[in-house]
Amino acid sequence: MISKKLQDAINEQINAEMWSSNLYLSMSVFFAKEGFNGFASWMKHQSHEEMGHAYSMMDYMIKRGGTPVVGMINVVPTGWGSPLEVFESAYKHEVHISELIDKLVDVAAAERDKASQDFLWGFVREQVEEEATIKDIVDKLRIAGTTGIFYIDAQLGQRK
Ligand SMILES: [Fe+2]
Ligand SMILES: [Fe+2]
């Protein structure tokens, strides 16, 4: 059985994951409108992935006798200037999410809940990959000229 304190903390994270999903969906729409169909498709995949994180946390809470909350999601940003700016915002957001997950592990540790610590460490590791993937895209966009941006767009469009 999961403690009330940890349930509340995980529910906050579930909300943050759903917010992330909407953020990336908003970025996907922005890219689609700008004609960057590869980036739009990549961001839609990312949006799905974030919803997947929320689902997985909800499933875990149920298994441990907790009650996941499907709460209200705050509004997400809608306008950016360039593909580089979008991916820079995405990178900043992932760094922020990594901090939230770290704090969540601290709550699980303070509650002496080993199973939850183990479950949450999976997200700590996943954040390393997410940060690295998006940082790589930011680095490439920084050095790319106009032609280069369309090449990266085509490449990211291949994400399955
Ligand atoms: Fe996530
Ligand atoms: Fe993420």
From TrEMBL:
The entry assigns this protein to a family as follows: Belongs to the ferritin family. Prokaryotic subfamily.
| Organism from which the protein derives | Bacteroides sedimenti
* Keywords linked to the UniProt accession: Cytoplasm, Iron, Iron storage, Metal-binding, Oxidoreductase
Q: Which PROSITE patterns match?
A: FERRITIN_LIKE
What Gene3D superfamilies does the database record attribute to this sequence?
A: 1.20.1260.10
**Cited InterPro entries:** Ferritin, Ferritin-like, Ferritin-like_diiron, Ferritin-like_SF, Ferritin_DPS_dom, Ferritin_prok
Q: Where in the cell is it found?
A: Cytoplasm
Functional note = Iron-storage protein.
List, for all copies, the residue spans of the domain called Ferritin-like diiron. 1-145
Q: Which reaction does it catalyse?
A: 4 Fe(2+) + O2 + 6 H2O = 4 iron(III) oxide-hydroxide + 12 H(+)
Q: What name does the UniProt record give this protein? A: Ferritin
Write down the EC number: 1.16.3.2
Q: What class of enzyme is it?
A: oxidoreductase
Top-level taxon in the UniProt lineage: Bacteria
